[in-house]
């Protein structure tokens, strides 16, 4: 593999375990709201979150309308999660809107890194004696993503959040602003992420190389990625 000066990681489902964070945020919220927690409530919560994300169009990050309204849609989606949950598990202490806002507060308190992710970033990082400048680039709400990624901050130059950049992955503007801020050329950079669209196609479109983090063994049908790994540990051999 060629020598890069800079490695940029995606956050959710790459370094951070979003599903674990979401579950902890639901648990903390239900405790505050005085709602008895059951496996069924947690299962409905996950399904409601997934379905509301899909229906809000938040997976359609190549749709210009979604790109433009991403952060508004994100907030509306959070309220919609609780419209769905409370239809099955009525809540007497908060409205769906209040629960949505509280849920986002609870999410801020999370930040579960995948096993070995923090150690890997540390080992690569120039800031900790490694060979690379390391950054993180993520779609999401600024305060939440910065808070969840706090443990990585000693090792990364910056965490780039779509809401701060006013542009979302996979838009070229997102990646160009990130590269410009880092002061690096695209061909010096390797992007690593779990989304073929947001991370891989997005990075490739501006001339970066991209490594598909693919723990579930999905097919890269169009062969967009330059590299593929199934576990983050494989990066130790590659770079
Ligand atoms: Mg991701």
Overview of the molecule:
The protein is of the alpha/beta class and 239 residues long. It has 2 domains: 6-16 and 113-238, HAD superfamily/HAD-like (Rossmann fold, 3-Layer(aba) Sandwich); 18-108, DNA polymerase, domain 1 (Orthogonal Bundle). The protein is built from 10 helices and 6 strands, in the order βαααααβαβααβαββα. It has helices at 18-33, 39-55, 64-88, 96-108, 117-124, 142-148, 162-165, 172-182, 196-205, 235-238; strands at residues 6-9, 133-138, 159-161, 189-193, 209-213, 227-229. The chain has a 6-stranded parallel sheet. Helix 9 links the parallel strand 4 and strand 5 (209-213). Helix 1 packs across helix 4 and helix 4 packs parallel to helix 6 (142-148). The mean pLDDT is 97. Bound molecules: magnesium ion. The site of magnesium ion has 7 residues, from loops.
